[in-house]
Amino acid sequence: MKTLKFAVLPGDGIGPEVMEVALDVLKSAGEKFSFTLDYENADIGGIAIDNHGTAFPDSTKQVCEASEAILFGSVGGPKWESLPPKEQPERAALLPIRKTFSLYANVRPGLLYPELTDASPLKKERIPNGIDIVCIRELTGGIYFGQPKSTSTLENGEEQAIDTMVYKTSEIERISKVAIDTAKARGNRVCSVDKANVLETSVLWRKVVTAYFAKHAPEIELSHMYVDNAAMQLARDPNQFDVLFTENMFGDILSDEMGVICGSLGMLASASLGAQKNSLGFPFGLYEPSGGTAPDIAGQGIANPCAQILSVAMMLRYSFGQLEAATAIEIAVEKAVTSGNRTGDIAFGLDPIGTKAMGEAVLSYL
Ligand code: IPM
Ligand code: MN
Question: For 85-112, what is the mean pLDDT?
Fold first, then answer.
């Protein structure tokens, strides 16, 4: 019997409630697919600020280092919004954890089941069979991390802020490989998104991506698109894309757009993978819902746990090689949300039958 060792960082808001349900599903999958769980909880985000005085404490880092993967909830909330921006949970927890573990590849599936097309703001005619695309977002470079990054006061008294967008060939190449591997497991098409008509980093991005694909995967159909056009195309005909591949900030924005056209952030999982392999030889990764802490509904037991459950499935697939269990969970979620009369409401992140009941519905199909 295999034991899966991972860190559990539920975080803030709805994080803990959806995490509890996701862990129940994982336990049950373990009974069915013969693995046991060995996980350790640790604080991250606002709760870590409250308990340890910092959003990403060393103790939490150590728990992660001793694990094969990180299962993450979400961080942030009104309670910490008055802190200086640099100390707020999102910036002080999420960005450092990505950087600490070099989690440079963010994989965000944009999936809308055909039965739930009503949940999308797009007209049904545009997505008769739902949506099935994936965004590969570079996660540890670009304007999020580039130096200099500062705010200063000029001689004339006005303030000036600087962010710097930087990319190196090696950073673009390693994420290109992830886009290629992802496309090979799907429809063999990659659309690389940049702003090469304006930005130097994008000119380099396009050049490196083109050369890398030509050398390593000439069989993949590669296209390029400017980000403004990509935002428009995503709303017009999302299924023209198979793998949407882009740098950090463009990926942040496009993946949220993907969330809304797919009906609900409450349904979308994500994986952040790095260079590092775990002791099993699989990529070390962090798995989290694409949505946030939803403070408006936290504590009410109505948050949709599906994104967290699907993040568990991604963890099983990528960091533990448990493909059968991962697929079984994904199928169970699909059946649970497309059965009965819940289709309309689940889309908005609120499951009218409740977080726990939704978990039970998933379990009943596992
Ligand atoms: C995301 C989030 C984060 C990001 C924020 C909270 C720092 O929006 O994971 O998409 O911008 O990367
Ligand atoms: Mn985002």
Answer: 96
